[in-house]
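Replying to the earlier thread about multi-chain prediction with a worked example.

Input:
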Amino acid sequence: MLVKYELLKECSETKARLGKLHTNRGVINTPIFMPVGTQATVKTMTPEELKEMNAEIILSNTYHLFLRPGHGLIEKAGGLHKFMNWDRPILTDSGGFQVFSLGKLRKLSEEGATFNSHIDGSKQELTPEKAIEIQNALDSDIAMVLDECPPYPATREYVYNSLKRTTRWAKRCIDANNNPNQSLFGIVQGGMYQDLREESAKELLELDFPGYAIGGLSVGEPKNLMYEVLEYTTPLLPKDKPRYLMGVGSPDALFEGVEKGIDMFDCVHPTRIGRNGTAMTTYGTVNIKNAKFKEDFTPLDSECSCYTCRNYTRAYLRHLFKANEILGLRLMTYHNVHFLIDTMKNIRKSLEEDRFMTYKKEFFDKYDQS
Amino acid sequence: MLVKYELLKECSETKARLGKLHTNRGVINTPIFMPVGTQATVKTMTPEELKEMNAEIILSNTYHLFLRPGHGLIEKAGGLHKFMNWDRPILTDSGGFQVFSLGKLRKLSEEGATFNSHIDGSKQELTPEKAIEIQNALDSDIAMVLDECPPYPATREYVYNSLKRTTRWAKRCIDANNNPNQSLFGIVQGGMYQDLREESAKELLELDFPGYAIGGLSVGEPKNLMYEVLEYTTPLLPKDKPRYLMGVGSPDALFEGVEKGIDMFDCVHPTRIGRNGTAMTTYGTVNIKNAKFKEDFTPLDSECSCYTCRNYTRAYLRHLFKANEILGLRLMTYHNVHFLIDTMKNIRKSLEEDRFMTYKKEFFDKYDQS
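Result:
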């Protein structure tokens, strides 16, 4: 069965919407934040901990798993879910974004991309067919088409050619797809050009994907420009399909994305900054390594109910970081992922209760104090 | 209240004994293995995980906590238990072993030891009084006297002077002790000389400690020599007091130690080798990074019931190590600590059922297959 989006409610003040995404591995409440498990593990966390913090779906990276341990091995293991002991839904990206990010280490053609592995330097190829072959083998619940993501800034001509290629590749992905349980999402390109977004959306809608991502954003453009693009792009997408904004996970972008009608988000932000000692809290970000927390025996976030905040003080967390103890990375990661999941839960609740914009104001009145 | 040892049963074939150690924070079943939480955390683990694997007591290191974050800070936090969120018993060492291990970086005198911190190079002093002051502040359940631990090999004269000093320091520790809830254990020295062990034990027994450690072992001597020393030293100790063999944790040494009448053990061995990718299993040690486990979809230890073995394959664990993922360190640590705790539980059961030597043979018939 393919995923099916159920629209529960549209916000009266904004484009925000409340919904459910039905999958073969359970129902996901949207809008939702998906923690990232790049290499078949959400860094430092166990699946049980992710469930404890109510993670309903995670993302994993095709590029990384293709290179190591290899999709063939994961297929033999019984698929990615079994390999990593996670029985809730998984979304995999196409690997394209990582390959294109390699810069001079990759070459792009109509066929696909060739590149050198960051692990052993070996020459590798990623085509639309290959991206699907890998994701079919991983057996994720949601797969993404291979798209071409233009940099920012990029000329209209570049972006035009890129979106045309993205459509051709999308068709090749559909043709290559061989896993009936996997829902393949299309990716709308078109850069910062409204008419090109319209053209891309029109072409992809004809292919009738079960869900759509808005690609080519969060690539270096100013945030206001991203919000502007979202503002005119989401209305181009069907109401009965989920909308996914790739690679976005800061609190301001989550609220703005929801406001523009986005249902799904993912980002390494909470796990990455957590391992660097930064926490997102009700009252803004906290760098736990700061000397002022040396004898601070209060919780990381006084309004948080997560495992870390219930059991440990800032002084202890700071000690763990100063002493290079792994438990510090775990506890900060736990808090940050919990924080975003919890914030999304509160966003959904505010949508249900018709007070999304009020909640947004309340949230940032506190968050921006830091 | 000081700890109180209850002798439940003596083994008919060996010097092994089954007992309970009553503490202010619950009863410990002996013989027991104590996981090591050097810097106020058992590396990579949470307290909840340690409880899940039935850790009844942990050890923490005075030297490390003195230098970072400082015992003053931990005292302000409400003591080590509260600081690290562990409400079961904690044993702290005296810091002496770590200071003496600094070699040329430390100077030894009758007063104590001066040394340079491994963290910032600052000059520090550890005297018997200081070792007690620190441990009193940490508020551990069991504290250790500062002793002088001779290297191996060492002349009879060196060891003689050292044990005499250890007795003088033991008295100074008793005089300095200011925490009525903390049980201070004496440490028998005497190196590999039977008559010196006798002299040390005699002198320390006069000081009537609530427990005794056998020090100066596992310092580079052949294992058989250590077992020989244990064989004649444990009978020198009172039957109604617990006996602790410091820094020992390989399966063979645990069985031999129990056989010679030891009740308590600690060692960084399971956590350290785990983080290096080595597991202790029913069928011997396994280096998970080995290529032969690449497509091994069986558990780390087919006879183990721990979280790691119930949920993950060798192939996945190997992937986590190859990809430098922290979850790999967690899962291997979990298994190894669980393995030793479980082995000690089985040892206690075998003592209860009068089949300790049979169990020992069964254990090594399997373990030595690797």
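Chain B touches chain A at residues 39-41, 43-47, 64, 68-69, 73, 76-78, 83-85, 294-295, 297, 311-313, 315-316, 318-320, 322-323, 325-327, 329-330 (CB under 8 Å).

Feel free to reuse this layout for your own posts.
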